[in-house]
Write a structure and sequence with these properties.
The chain is 41% helix and 12% strand. It is of the alpha/beta class and 382 residues long. It folds into three domains: 2-166, 3-Layer(aba) Sandwich (Aspartate Aminotransferase, domain 2); 170-207, no CATH class; 264-371, Aspartate Aminotransferase, domain 1, CATH 3.90.1150.10. The strands form three sheets. It has a seven-stranded mixed sheet with strand order 1-9-8-5-4-2-3, sandwiched between helices. It has a two-stranded antiparallel ribbon with strand order 6-7. It has a two-stranded antiparallel sheet with strand order 10-11. α2 packs parallel to α3. The longest helix is centred in the middle third of the chain and has 19 residues, at 172-190. The chain is globular, with a radius of gyration of 20 Å.
C-alpha cells in the first residue's frame, strides 16, 4: 500500500484505532473537527475519545460527500481539523478541502475506510491529507486490520510507538476465533441458519445493535467525556462490531490479511464492474459526465422506500449494512456535537440511500425490479 500511495504506511489492528492515533497526533484536545453526519457512529465516539468536539458538515445530497461551499465562513475559522469520509468509496472533494486547510493552517485527515482504489482529481484517495486511515475489512475482505498512511515519513516511527502503547497483546483464543470465522459464516449461510443464529445471539445478549445506530447511553457518555483524551472511558462504544479493534495480530491473522491484500487488484476490478452496472440503473444518482467509475465498496442507490427495499433484499438473503440513519447530529444531539448548519441534504440522503454490494449487482437489480422499488425522486433543492 505504501507503493500504491507513495506514502509511509503503518499497520493497525483496525481503522478506528488508526484514526484515534491520527487525531491524537494532529489535534490538540479541546479542538473542533469538521466531519460528515452520515457516518458510522463508532467514528463519532473515536472523535470524542480523542478529546475533540465534532462539528457536522453540510453534505451533497447526490453522494453524501462534504460540501465545502456550504460551510459558513465563521465555522471554518473555529476549526482545528477536517475529517473526510469518502462514503462508500465516493471521494470527498479532497483537493478543495486541502486548499482550505492549508489556508487555515489546520490538519486534513482522510477516513478512507471505504475508499481503497478510489481517486479524486486523478490522485488516489489518501494522498491529500496529513494522514489517511484505511480498512482491510472492506474491499480486502480480511475482517480485520487497517493501516495509517502519513505524508511525512519521519512521523512513522513516533506513530508506531504510540500505536504499540495502545495495543493489547495477541491472544490465542482471538486468533483461533478469527481463523474459524469464515468457515462458520459459510456454514450458517449454506444451511440457511442465519435467522436462528441471530435469534440465539439476541437471547444470549451478544448483539450490540437492535437498530441502525447503537444505543447512545447519554448519561454514561457525559461521564466518559471527562476521561478524554483516552480510549478507556469510551471502550464500550468504540469496540462495537469489532471487539479486537486494538488487539495485536498474531501469525494466522497476519498471513490471511497479507494473502487477501495480494488479491486487491482483482477485487477492485470486480467492484468497478458492479459499480458501473448499478450506476446505469434508474435508482442511481446523476453522475457527472466524464467522471471515472470508482470501485465503490457499496453503491448508494437512492430509493423512495428504503426500508421496503431492504426487506425485499432480505427475503433473498441479501443483507444491507452500512446504513447511517439518522445523521449523527440527530442521533447524538447538541450535548455531544455541533449540528450541521444545513442538515437537509444529509437527512434526505440518509433516509433514501440503499448501500448495495456491487459484487451482487445483477441479483440486486432483479430483486428491486421485481419489488417495484421506485427512485427517491428529485434531489433536495430541485
Amino acid at each position: 500500500m505504501g507503493a500504491r500511495l507513495g506514502r509511509e504506511c503503518l499497520y493497525v489492528p483496525s481503522c478506528r484505532l488508526g484514526l484515534y492515533l491520527a487525531l491524537r497526533h494532529w489535534c490538540e484536545p479541546g479542538g473542533r473537527i469538521l466531519m460528515s453526519p452520515v457516518n458510522d457512529d463508532v467514528i463519532l465516539f473515536v472523535v470524542l475519545a480523542a478529546g475533540l468536539r465534532p462539528v457536522q458538515a453540510p453534505l451533497s445530497a447526490t453522494d453524501g460527500s462534504i460540501a465545502p461551499d456550504a460551510v459558513p465562513e465563521s465555522l471554518w475559522q473555529g476549526l482545528s481539523a477536517v475529517l473526510t469520509t469518502n462514503l462508500y468509496g465516493n471521494p470527498d472533494p479532497a483537493g478543495r478541502l486541502r486548499e482550505r486547510c492549508d489556508r487555515l493552517g489546520i490538519a486534513l485527515i482522510e477516513d478512507a475506510a471505504h475508499a481503497i482504489g478510489s481517486t479524486s482529481d486523478g490522485r488516489p484517495v489518501g494522498t491529500f491529507g496529513d494522514a489517511a486511515v484505511f480498512s482491510l475489512s472492506k474491499h480486502v475482505g480480511a475482517k480485520s486490520g487497517g493501516f495509517l498512511a502519513v505524508a511525512d515519513p519521519a512521523l512513522r516511527a513516533p506513530l508506531e510507538r504510540a500505536r504499540d502503547a495502545l495495543l493489547d497483546p495477541a491472544r490465542l483464543t482471538a486468533e483461533l476465533a478469527y481463523a474459524v470465522r469464515p468457515y462458520a459464516e459459510s456454514a450458517v449461510r449454506g444451511l440457511r441458519l442465519a435467522p436462528a443464529a441471530w435469534w440465539a445471539l439476541r437471547r444470549l445478549g451478544l448483539t450490540e445493535r437492535e437498530e441502525i445506530r447503537m444505543p447512545l447511553r447519554p448519561g454514561e457518555l457525559r461521564g466518559a467525556l471527562g476521561t478524554a483524551p483516552s480510549l478507556t472511558g469510551f471502550h464500550s462504544w468504540v469496540r462495537v462490531d469489532m471487539h479486537d479493534y486494538r488487539t495485536a495480530p498474531g501469525r494466522l491473522r497476519s498471513r490471511r490479511v497479507g494473502r487477501l491484500l495480494g488479491r486487491i487488484d482483482e477485487r477492485l476490478a470486480a467492484h468497478r464492474t458492479g459499480t458501473e452496472r448499478l450506476l446505469s440503473t434508474r435508482w442511481a444518482a446523476p453522475v457527472r459526465p466524464g467522471a471515472p467509475v470508482q470501485p465503490l465498496f457499496r453503491v448508494p442507490l437512492l430509493v423512495a422506500d428504503r426500508d421496503a427495499a431492504v426487506a425485499a433484499l432480505a427475503r433473498r438473503r441479501i443483507t444491507v449494512g452500512y446504513l447511517y440513519d439518522p445523521p449523527l447530529d440527530t442521533y447524538a444531539g447538541e450535548p455531544f456535537t455541533d449540528p450541521s448548519p444545513s442538515p437537509g441534504n444529509a437527512a434526505w440522503f440518509a433516509r433514501h440511500a440503499l448501500p448495495v454490494d456491487p459484487l451482487r449487482a445483477g441479483t440486486v437489480v432483479g430483486v428491486l425490479d421485481a419489488a417495484g422499488a421506485e427512485p427517491a425522486g428529485e434531489l433536495p433543492g430541485g
